[in-house]
């Protein structure tokens, strides 16, 4: 799968944050429906499926566990997420990280081999490329 196709997958990803009981669905840029539940923008990072690699369920789970251990060791606040296809045909565990800026979030994503990370703010659901390519701003809608 090409990088362009992988980036397009990010723009369609639905985010579930189980301990908040919310589901974020991407919408057209500028369209925001729901109350943003944080004081400042947050980022979503995963260790699953780095770049074009598809290592399989066991390796993805091990990678994600190491990412979560690293976040804990650094004292970073985070919550578990699942992002993927609306119909559930593809899903990846991730971490919604509180307190990072875009540079740090992209560096974290790049360290785990990711093409991009998400930034969720009160005004946008943004796909931030880890290699400095242009970002993609979308809107969002919360469901419960």
TrEMBL record:
InterPro entries the record matches: DUF3293
Entry superkingdom: Bacteria
The protein's name: DUF3293 domain-containing protein
Species of provenance: Actinomycetospora rhizophila
Organism lineage string: Bacteria, Bacillati, Actinomycetota, Actinomycetes, Pseudonocardiales
């Amino acid at each position: 799968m090409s990088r362009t196709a992988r980036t397009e997958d990010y723009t369609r990803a639905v985010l579930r944050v189980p301990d908040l009981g919310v589901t974020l669905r991407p919408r057209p840029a500028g369209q925001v429906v729901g109350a943003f539940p944080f004081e400042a923008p947050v980022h979503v990072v995963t260790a699953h499926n780095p770049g074009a690699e598809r290592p399989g369920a066991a390796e993805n789970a091990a990678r994600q566990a190491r990412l979560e251990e690293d976040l804990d060791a650094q004292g970073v606040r985070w919550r578990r997420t699942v992002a993927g296809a609306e119909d559930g045909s593809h899903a990846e565990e991730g971490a919604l990280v509180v307190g990072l800026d875009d540079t740090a979030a992209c560096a974290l994503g790049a360290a785990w081999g990711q093409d991009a990370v998400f930034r969720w703010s009160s005004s946008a659901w943004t796909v931030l490329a880890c290699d400095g390519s242009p970002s993609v701003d979308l809107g969002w809608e919360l469901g419960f």
